[in-house]
Amino acid sequence: MEKGKIIIEAIKVAPVIATAAEEMRERILVELNLRINKARRKSLWIRVSVVAASVALLLGITNYFSYRQGYKHLNSQIVQQTNPLGMQSSITLSDGTKVFLNAGTTLSYPTAFVSKNRRVEVTGEAFFDVAHDTSRPFIVKTGNLNVRVLGTKFNVKSYQEENNIEVTLEEGKVEVGMEGQRTCHQVKPGQQLSYDKTMQMFRSRQVNLNHYIIWKEGKFYFESMTFENIIRQLERRFDVDIQIVSDDLKKTVFTGDFVRGENLEQILRVMTADKRIRYKIDGDQVYIE
Fold first, then answer.
1. pTM as predicted
2. Are 175 and 184 within 8 A, CB to CB?
3. How confident is the model over 4-57, as pLDDT tens digits?
4. Is residue 132 part of a domain?
5. Domain limits for position 148
6. Are 143 and 165 in contact (CB under 8 A)?
7. Which of 210, 232, 255 is the last residue of a domain?
8. I want to staple 76 with a disulfide (CB 3.0 to 4.6 A). Which of 40, 110, 179, 251 is the partner?
9. Distance between CA atoms of residues 212 and 168, nearest Å
């Protein structure tokens, strides 16, 4: 060997050692691949789980709102209660509002109030004792009028065969307006707002409240009322058909009260006491001349 030179010779490895090293390398590669695949599967499972949880949550929310809408629809069906002639009744609505129905009256109302407004419809005569709820106004539709309140007591008289619709307020405050119009008429306690269907005009006046709500107790009070209007009330209360022979008699004015539970014949006997008017009862037919 020459001075200053380094000679490097290759080291030869025995075949057995080389084979073992190659096998070890392959095992290490297989193990690494297994771990990589396992990590990938775990990551994929996590992603799938997150998506599945999101879908489940979305379905849960959808089902919840669908259930609520279905519940509301199921529990807000419109029903009708109709009083035949000769019958009075009362009902308590789902919000606690009490309604007294006169004879020949129909009330349409939902079995549960689920909208922003508590809305009912009446034809005939009804007295409302409305449960107070500032968030949901109570609206009574009668004919082409709407009576809007929050919590109050008032009487609505709106028979189809009569020309006037009357709203009489006992306590609280109500607003009365035409359907589809913004203009409203306010009614104060002790006032009656009357709407003339023919003239399409409103008229407000102070009244004796007891005269207009006494019907709830099966009593009558007639103040300067024509025979024609009185007869309509008697027909509804006693479920009879009353015929007045004379047109002049229909316009005759009568004032009186019947507060002792008088029957039809007792009332007619008082009304014809001066002997110039006669009546005849034949079953459910009554003739006055």
1. 0.73
2. yes
3. 444 444 455 456 555 666 666 667 666 666 766 666 666 556 554 554 555 455
4. yes
5. 78-210
6. yes
7. 210
8. 110
9. 7
